[in-house]
Amino acid sequence: MSESVRQLLVRGVAAAKTGQARDKEEARYYLEWVLRSGDATSDQKSTAWLWLSQIEDDPKKKRDCLEYVLAFDPANGAARRGLALLDGRLKAEELINPNQPLEPVQPQATPPPSGVRRYTCPKCGGNMSYLAGKRSLVCDYCGNRLHEYQAIQQGALITEQDFTAALATAKGHRWELPSERTLKCEGCGAAFALPPLQVSGKCPFCGSAHVVTANTGELIEPEAILPFQFDADAASKHIRRWLDELRFRPGDLDNRAAIGKPRKVFLPFWTFDLGGTMNWRALVAENRGNNNTEWVPRNGLYLVYHDDLCVPATRAIPKDLLDDLADYDPKALVPYAAELLSDTATEIYQIPLANASLVARQRALRLGEDHIGSHDLAGEHYRDFAMNSSGLIIESYKLALLPMWITRYRYKKTSFVVAVNGQSGKVAGQAPRSGLQKALAGLFGQN
What we know:
Number of helices: 12
Structural class: alpha+beta
Largest sheet: 12 strands, mixed
Low-confidence stretches: 439-447
Mean pLDDT: 88
């Protein structure tokens, strides 16, 4: 790095930071000098273009500067935010101080009637239940059927949301404080409570389905939903089969386990679209003969592409179970419609977008490392492997509600949690140890 170029950049940035009109020309003079310098690095030129964008008043010139930044550094968050502001995807008054912690959203203890909807049969006013086999809401009384696509607003589409814009606002960092809501039933007039973090439920007196639809604008709204693909009986069969096929289980587990009735729930998940590149390097062993091994540097570039990488937004069930069950097919998602929640408990997200995006980046990095190990370095003996994720870009996101069956089963006076993916039927759960497992745990000092 040229010391003279560094000094030019320092002076240009210092002048630009004052925000004073009289210093703009001085900033422009030094920053443009950096851009003309043949020995300026890509990082220095990227920084110069970024600060030039800060002192430009003309929107077109400002856009040109930001696009030059992204040409050098496609993952530059400041340049992406700047373009989002110019495009109108982000408003200046929505920007937050990233160093200032945000408080969780306090929900209304008693939502107003205008913020709660009761879903009934349009023909007779009876309660509607979702039948997975029919892909429809069916009236419990007259049998009137409303197909799931009739419940979705005409012309509704699933839209990927701008990640850069959301991350710069309070919405991208907030979550809801777990609090009970009290609703007044629009059917019988009784008051009933919804458990913390739930936005849908049935009146315990008349069975009417209610959904809280009020939106204060402080949380991100669901964009998509994946309807249940099978009913409670099928979920129980999946659990029974899972118990039967478990390895290292007690021999009488499948016969003696008392399975509770599965309860269906929509759980929130974030999905992310990622792109960009990640550089990697390693030392690879090369045989030079006579048992002489030389460690030779090797490096490469990994192209990142992940569509709808799924990250749980809930803490309702243990994380290890959620991770095992997050293999949903995003092609089955449909646009969000509150009607599809009418007979199903639905949870509000507890993990904000910003936190979930870090998990998505970690997963993308791990997948990249696994790919290089099984392809570029397959069969090689290597060490000191490192991968740089700074070029990884989260392009977009959406909040989706995904179906899960949850229950417990009892075995020898002990209760175990088990969950079923409401699309694929995959099961994950807690299980008792066999005698062999207990012996090994005792041998190795594990509880």
